[in-house]
Design brief:
This protein is α/β, with parallel strands linked by helices. It has a domain of 175 residues: Isoleucyl-tRNA Synthetase, Domain 1. It is 47% helix and 14% strand. Strands 1, 2, 3, 4, 10, 14 and 15 form a 7-stranded parallel β-sheet that branches. It has a 4-stranded antiparallel β-sheet with strand order 6-5-9-11, with no helix packed on it. Strands 7-8 form a two-stranded antiparallel sheet. Helix 13 runs antiparallel to helix 14 and helix 14 packs antiparallel against helix 16. The structure holds one RNA strand.
Length: 516
RNA sequence: GGCAGGGUAGCUCAGCUGGUUAGAGCACGGCACUCAUAAUGCCGGGGUCGCGGGUUCGAGUCCCGCCCCUGCUACCA
């Protein structure tokens, strides 16, 4: 079982490029795994509690539930449009999740009663943020985000989780499992944090109105609300059906795909919670980077969205968008989005190099062989491609992290090889000489084999376009039903009837009209 | 401030433990070709390798100092 998850998205706005990058990247991993033959379960979802959601609902004069219902629908519509192949969509307002959170907290109370304790928390509270502020967020006695408001000194009694107790456990875990967190830069940051020492974290809040009731009241009988760590993070566990005993069929997760900004929660608090509950830890966490804008401004939930996701998807279609994001934004770091760059990638990589390679190959099979793929034996082209696809696999299988952009580079090496091979072989010359018929057959069979492999290896990234190429090649079944490695190498397209279709990535007639 | 990473062609980046004329892709220019989405292939121009010292026969690659950028430095998520 390969159980992978993405961060659940906070339901206080519409999906933007940052959300999309994470889902697309995780989707590629999920699809890649399925095509390796793994039994994949891919979870995504929404984080729907919290003061900001309550506030947003109040502003619109709707109930919080009505608000999150609407937001969840918009997210799901976007994921469908983008071809995200999740198996499950969890929402933290669902009954199952709430029951799971109760069970997890109670399990900690049973197994490690000392891990929860009551403590008064005093601090400066910003009404604008609805949150306590730390010194670094305060300037001249005012919250840096709301300088016009006056900070209140607030004291409240909460449940706390004894995170500090797990410092050594976490350090040992990181030492024993070097691959637990990647990329290395994030891992080093967490190791530094562990060296610095851990403070306990609050597990409940008194003034939080929209959330899961904390299972136990405080000593003075006050009912509190579960704070974010114990509300949002457990979604990965509750989605498996926990506490139903069958949850072990999926748990522990193989991989949590998250943004680099929430690494700490997933690599410190979450593992400690699980350990406290006596549950196994996820095998790995991958912290991807951010999509930035050309100016360097960063996308985040608080920053304004400057490029409309819907527009970015519609302009060249979801598959081109998926390709662009993953090729341009390294999955272990940041990358910029710009229309100029998008058009460059689209024209150079998709239309000219790859799309045209498919077009010219299929056209030649039609022209010289009446559309029936000739037979031929694998040769040095297949060998060279195979070496590239080994690297493709190493970039996606997690052994060195999840370097999707490298996998794409590998496929394009084979595209370049194919175009070069066409020119070197000059089939149009071979076709004029009947004595060269066998050579012509061999060349075109080779090109079709290349396209087969490209379709299969691009299927995780561009599922729809890969399927269309598969169809144009006259290949049987679905590209998504294929398997990498030996089964793929064994495919012999001889006799397939190609179907010449529209270009895979049509170019706009007036490129200037697309420029901004 | 502390810790970590980075500053290499117009753009995005590769350059491992120091060693022939510093590389790739895109963009740009020329040539070739015509199967193809005026696509492709070949060739080429273009870089004081952040700045200043130092070690060495020799440094983008090591050492010191400085400048600049990014991330982390815990309760919005």
């Amino acid at each position: 079982m390969f159980y992978l998850t993405t961060a659940i998205d906070y339901a206080n706005g519409d999906p933007h490029l940052g959300h999309a990058l994470e889902k697309i990247g995780a989707d590629v991993i999920a699809r890649y795994r399925r095509m390796r033959g793994d039994d994949v379960h891919f979870l995504i979802g929404m984080d729907e509690h919290g003061q900001k959601v309550a506030q947003a609902a109040a502003d619109e004069d709707v109930t919080p539930q009505a608000l999150v219902d609407r937001v969840a629908e918009r997210f799901q519509a976007m994921w469908e449009r983008l071809g995200i192949s999740h198996d499950q969509f969890i929402r933290t307002t669902s009954r199952e999740h709430i029951a799971g959170v109760y069970a997890l907290i109670e399990r900690i109370f049973e197994r490690n009663p000392d891990d929860f304790y009551e403590k008064s928390y005093a601090g400066r509270y910003c009404v604008g943020c609805e949150a306590f502020k730390t010194d670094s967020e305060i300037k001249d006695d005012r919250c840096v985000l709301h300088p016009t408001r006056i900070l209140e000194w607030v004291e409240e009694r909460n449940w706390f989780f004894r995170l500090s107790r797990y410092q050594d456990f976490l350090r040992n875990h990181f030492a024993a499992h070097p691959g637990f967190l990647g990329p290395d830069s994030r891992r080093n940051e967490i190791l530094a944090l562990l060296d610095q020492g851990l403070e306990d974290v609050s597990a409940s809040r008194a003034r939080l109105t929209w959330g899961i009731p904390f299972p136990r009241p405080t000593r003075d009988g006050e009912a509190q609300t579960t704070y974010v760590w114990f509300d949002a993070l457990p979604n990965y566990l509750t989605a498996t059906g926990f506490p139903d005993p069958s949850f072990t069929r999926r748990w522990p997760a193989q991989l949590h795909v998250i943004g680099k900004d929430i690494t700490r929660f997933h690599c410190v608090i979450w593992p400690a919670m699980l350990q406290s509950a006596g549950l196994p830890l996820p095998h790995a966490v991958w912290a991807h980077g951010f999509v930035t804008l050309a100016g360097g401004e960063r996308f985040s939930k608080s920053a304004g969205v400057r490029v409309e996701l819907a527009e970015a998807v519609e302009r060249y279609g979801p598959d081109a968008f998926r390709y662009f994001m993953l090729r341009e934004v390294p999955f272990d770091g940041d990358g910029a989005f710009s229309w100029e760059r998008f058009e460059e990638r689209y024209n150079a990589d998709l239309a000219n190099a790859f799309g045209n390679f498919a077009s010219r190959t299929i056209a030649m099979v039609e022209r010289y062989f009446g559309g029936v793929v000739p037979s031929g034996r694998p040769n040095e082209i297949d060998d060279a491609d195979a070496a590239d696809y080994v690297r493709y696999g190493e970039a996606l299988d997690g052994s060195r992290g999840y370097l999707i952009q490298e996998a794409l580079r590998c496929v394009w090496l084979t595209v370049a090889r194919g175009n070069e091979y066409v020119d070197r072989s000059a089939p149009w010359k071979l076709a004029k000489d009947p004595a060269q018929r066998a050579t012509l057959e061999s060349v075109l069979a080779t090109l079709v084999r290349q396209l087969i492999r490209q379709a299969v290896h691009l299927a995780p990234v561009m599922p729809e376009r890969a399927e269309e190429l598969w169809r144009q090649l006259g290949a049987p079944g679905s590209v998504h039903a294929q398997r990498f490695g030996a089964p793929l190498a064994a495919i012999d397209p001889a006799g397939w009837r190609v179907v010449r279709g529209d270009p895979l990535f049509p170019k706009e007639k007036e490129p200037s009209a697309l420029s901004r």
